Amino acid sequence: MYTHEIESFLEEDLGYNDISCKLVPDHNVEAIIFTKEDCTLAGTDVALSFFDYFGIEYSTDYSNGDRLSKGDVIFTLKGSSLLILRTERLVLNFLGHLCGIATNTNKCVDIVRKYSDRTKIACTRKTTPGLRKYEKMAVIAGGGDPHRFNLTDSIMIKDNHVKMMGVEAAIKSAKEKAGFTQKMEVEVESSADALVAARTGADIIMLDNMEPEEVVKTVDFLRRSSIPEHIIIEVSGGINMDNLEGYAKTGVDIISMGSLIHRSQWIDVSLEIVKVQE
């Protein structure tokens, strides 16, 4: 995390006058941050950025991606009580939010692994403004794929592009403008458009808003149509933990889920001062 990012978050939380911390004298203290529920850990790098900024000593036995049990101590902290309390809420907010995403992602990965070791779970660009890189790193901690971090990572021809130009024309136009390193993904809603995309040069075909039964038929149709083997088949649209199992059985390469982030629930983490030095 860059210094200007840390200071921006601090400005939001501290405002112009931290009244609460002036109520008690500053002491050297030891504190712990622990989880109140089972989770997959994420956000430790963010927490360390705040600790380093304030000069707070820390130790931990865990890394992002580790599975924790209720009561596990994530960090032991030593330093000024004033500084520890000032950073408390920001660190807990990041840990709670990011651990929630990692935990949700890990549960989804476990569901898919029952049916395929090859299929990957990915998130989308449905992220909280200003927090995308942190949320996507939490997905990685949970065993998922970050997909595109931003629009420059690769080309994606979506439904509105297709409505204006058609699949074939949109792909040809994009190929004329794309750099040689950029892969091209095309979002389709029918097996016919999927085949056009495959034959016109798409690297990734996203089957959007299809039921699992239709996905199976489309994947079979594409394979029987002898599309290039390098083409990746992705499915997306309205997929969540409740219906994930059906899509895990379809044999696609990627299942992308906005719900990994926007439907995750925060993990309850807490900070407690355990020793005060006079």
UniProtKB/TrEMBL annotation:
Q: Which GO terms describe its biological process?
A: NAD+ biosynthetic process; quinolinate catabolic process
Q: What is its EC number?
A: 2.4.2.19
Q: Where is the Quinolinate phosphoribosyl transferase N-terminal domain?
A: 18-99
Q: Which UniProt keywords apply?
A: Glycosyltransferase, Pyridine nucleotide biosynthesis, Transferase
Q: Which SUPFAM superfamilies match?
A: Nicotinate/Quinolinate PRTase C-terminal domain-like, Nicotinate/Quinolinate PRTase N-terminal domain-like
Q: Pathway, per UniProt?
A: Cofactor biosynthesis; NAD(+) biosynthesis; nicotinate D-ribonucleotide from quinolinate: step 1/1
Instruction: State whether it acts alone or in a complex, and with which partners, per the record.
Output: Hexamer formed by 3 homodimers.
A molecular function (GO) term: nicotinate-nucleotide diphosphorylase (carboxylating) activity
Q: Which Gene3D superfamilies match?
A: Aldolase class I, Quinolinate phosphoribosyl transferase, N-terminal domain
A single GO cellular-component term from the record reads:
cytoplasm
- This protein is called Nicotinate-nucleotide pyrophosphorylase [carboxylating]
Q: Which organism is it from?
A: Methanolobus vulcani
Q: Which InterPro entries match?
A: Aldolase_TIM (IPR013785), NadC (IPR004393), NadC/ModD (IPR027277), Nicotinate_pribotase-like_C (IPR036068), Quinolinate_PRibosylTase_N_sf (IPR037128), Quinolinate_PRibosylTrfase_C (IPR002638), Quinolinate_PRibosylTrfase_N (IPR022412)
- What does the function comment of this entry state? Involved in the catabolism of quinolinic acid (QA).
Domain annotation Quinolinate phosphoribosyl transferase C-terminal: ranges? 101-272
